[in-house]
Design a protein that fits this description.
34% of the residues lie in helices and 24% in strands. It has 119 residues and is an alpha+beta fold. The chain has a single domain, classed as 2-Layer Sandwich (Beta-lactamase Inhibitory Protein, Chain:B, domain 1). It has a 4-stranded antiparallel beta sheet. Strand 3 and strand 4 form a beta hairpin. The N and C termini lie far apart (79 Å). The model has no long low-confidence stretch (mean pLDDT 85).
């Protein structure tokens, strides 16, 4: 019995040396969770179109990192911030790491810093 265990112990490293562990996705995108989240958000932002409803955007993008509500000239503006780029390696998401999506009366009117600064 001891010789059998010894034989298995000696043969195992050679038998297992051909094993490969895949850690990346099917699209060749290797990254951590926060990188995946940013990549996904950038991908979804690239598919946005003016005139989309608030509900359809949230259904596509998910929960925003930050949300604001403004009222100007009898219009309600809602701004959702989604993290799209990391600026500091501190583990905290800030608005400068996010892309703002601006909704006027429940309809997407623009996104990015230029759209946000017009408020």
């Amino acid at each position: 019995m001891k010789s059998f265990v010894l034989a298995i112990a000696l043969i195992s490293p050679f038998a297992l040396s051909g094993c490969v562990i895949s850690v990346g996705g099917d699209d060749g995108h290797y990254s951590s969770d926060w990188e995946d989240r940013e990549y996904n958000n950038r991908k979804h932002v690239a598919q946005l179109e003016k005139g989309m409803t608030y509900e359809s955007v949230v259904r596509k993008m998910g929960v925003a990192d930050f949300s604001e509500m403004h009222e100007q000239s009898d219009h309600a503006y809602r701004v959702l911030f989604y993290r799209t780029q990391r600026t500091m390696d501190d583990g905290v998401t800030t608005k400068d790491e996010c892309t703002p999506l601006v909704f006027r009366d429940g309809v997407l009117s623009g996104w990015g810093d230029a759209a946000y600064q017009q408020l």
